[in-house]
Amino acid sequence: MTAHEQVFRTPIPLRWSDMDGFHHVNNARYLTFLEQARIEWFETIGEAWVTEDYAPVVASATLNFKRPIEYPAQVFVELFTERLGNSSVVIGHRIVASDGTLHCDGNIVAVWIDRRSGKSTTLPDCVRRAAAQLVQTS
């Protein structure tokens, strides 16, 4: 990450129930952590990013597992925009420990759909503006 890169960063509290039989956070929980961070980021927009007419869906998710998260730990999700499309945004992510250890990186593709037709629709202006503020500069 460069000094010029903007990110949305949020802490993720770990729960004992996040653990698996190998005494680290189950890798399926990483998707839940990323979902929580995305919702928190969307909520900071201050405008309707989901309505009765349109909503985001995850079209794809890529997770590159780097190091297991062992309980207890203090971890954060960092989000940034990799690409803005007409109806989608590619949101890059990192799950990092408080000491900077990278546990996971990758991205998700969020596509806004018309809730009636199920087809893609134009990205809401408020989402486009918010995502443009987090564009990765490196």
Describe what this molecule looks like in 3D:
This protein is α+β, with helices and mostly antiparallel strands. It has a single domain, classed as Hotdog Thioesterase (Thiol Ester Dehydrase, Chain A, Roll). A five-stranded antiparallel β-sheet has the order 1-3-4-5-2. It is elongated. The mean pLDDT is 93.
CATH names the topology as: Thiol Ester Dehydrase, Chain A
Strand-residue fraction? 35-45%
In the CATH hierarchy, the architecture is Roll
> Helix/strand/pairing class, anyone?
alpha+beta
Computed CA radius of gyration, to the nearest angstrom: 16 Å
Q: What is the assigned CATH homologous superfamily?
A: Hotdog Thioesterase
Separation of termini? 7 Å
- Overall shape: elongated
CATH hierarchy class name: Alpha Beta
Helix content: 10-25%
Q: Could you give a short account of the major beta sheet? A: 5 strands, antiparallel
Number of DSSP-assigned strands: 5
Question: How do the helices and strands line up, and which of them pair or pack?
Answer:
Layout: E1 8-12, H1 27-44, E2 54-65, E3 75-84, E4 88-97, E5 102-114, H2 125-132
Antiparallel strand pairs: 1-3, 2-5, 3-4, 4-5
Using brief descriptors, characterize the structure shown.
138 residues; alpha+beta; Thiol Ester Dehydrase, Chain A; five-stranded antiparallel sheet; 2 helices; 5 strands; 19% helix; elongated
